[in-house]
Amino acid sequence: MGSKSRWCILVAGLGWLLVGTGQGFGSGFALYEAGARSSSLAGAVVARADDLSAIFYNPAGLVQLPKIQIMCGFTTFIPRVEIVTHLGPVATPNLMQSRVSFAPHFFASYQVGERVWLGLGLNSPFGLGIQYNANWPGSANLIKATIQTLNLNPTIAVKVTDYLAVGAGLDIMYFSLNLKRVLPLPLLGPQALDLQGGSWGLGFNLGLLLKPLDYLSVGVSYRSQVRQQVNGKARFRPLNTFDGDASGSIILPDMVFAGIMVQPLKQLSVEGGIIWTHWDLFKRLDIKFSNALGTLSEPKEWHNTWRGQLGVEYKALTWLDLRAGYAFENEPMPDRFADYLVPSTDRRHNFSCGTGFHWRAMTLDLAYTMVLMMDRPVDNSRATGVLPSDFQGRLSHVVVMSVGYKF
Hints:
By secondary structure, the chain is mainly β. The chain has a single domain (3-406), classed as Porin (Beta Barrel). It is built from three helices and 23 strands. The strands form two sheets. It has a 14-stranded antiparallel β-barrel with strand order 1-4-5-7-8-9-10-13-14-17-18-19-20-23. It starts with a helix and ends with a strand.
């Protein structure tokens, strides 16, 4: 392939980074999708770590990728959320406004020498897209919430021995937030608030990969918390005299990934693993206004979450891989402060499948995940503007495509 064609592939991959964000289908608003192959295996790739999604799941796995490789693609989120609110004897079903959203990914690696690899990742590790009718019964808590992130992740991996590899990287993360809601202000009456802001934060990630046997590998990785100091603008309607600056801070949680992979047959591999997410850092939501309103402060008190995952891959033909996975996770939001920011259920089941096609130096990976959410009644939430509600379990869908090339 000529240099011109290589640049075209690179530019096309970077182009995906100009679009969209995703509806969060992981715990809270975390996004665990970082490529079609890993998604079809329900994220059970921490001990495999043998494709470019390793930059996200376990950077030590880059030592398994020879020469130069690139991969780009996108995740499509098709959410289905319904909340039934209760005001006295009146029950009102409220369906989230239909929207399809996207989260891009781009990864590249380069083998520097016999024992050193460099990598670069661009993806969206957190995302949220929620919107309801402006006049729905829960508007005093939320009308719209959009969270977008873009993470630049330069990485290095070192093959310490034939059995042990380590990796590390930086997380240079952009975070943007848009919230719309109604504020019931004393004396002034209801005010529609439109808040927008953004910031940059810095974190890191570490990984370890141990392969004591050809058919056995163990992987562990850590992604650090990232503090975001968000600055932006607040607009009020109808009293636009309150328009002004606004600021707040949020700590995006650190995560621990772990997995064990076995190969009972040469063509068959099975991995089980877990992801722990440190959501109890999200204690409060504080927004400081530059006007006379001062600070809006609301408790969240989220708790930490666990995600268990299992993935199976079968190399059916030299050009075809078949994959399936399952993941189970709980949600961080407690009943006593449940709100409509992340209208999620207590438990979530993720059933995934996918295929991988190989043609010379190119790969095409496709994945589909069906997200099954269980019903959740919320009767006594102390969150502002939250009525007794039933968060209805619905089927949502995730579709991922990735294209890769090995130079």
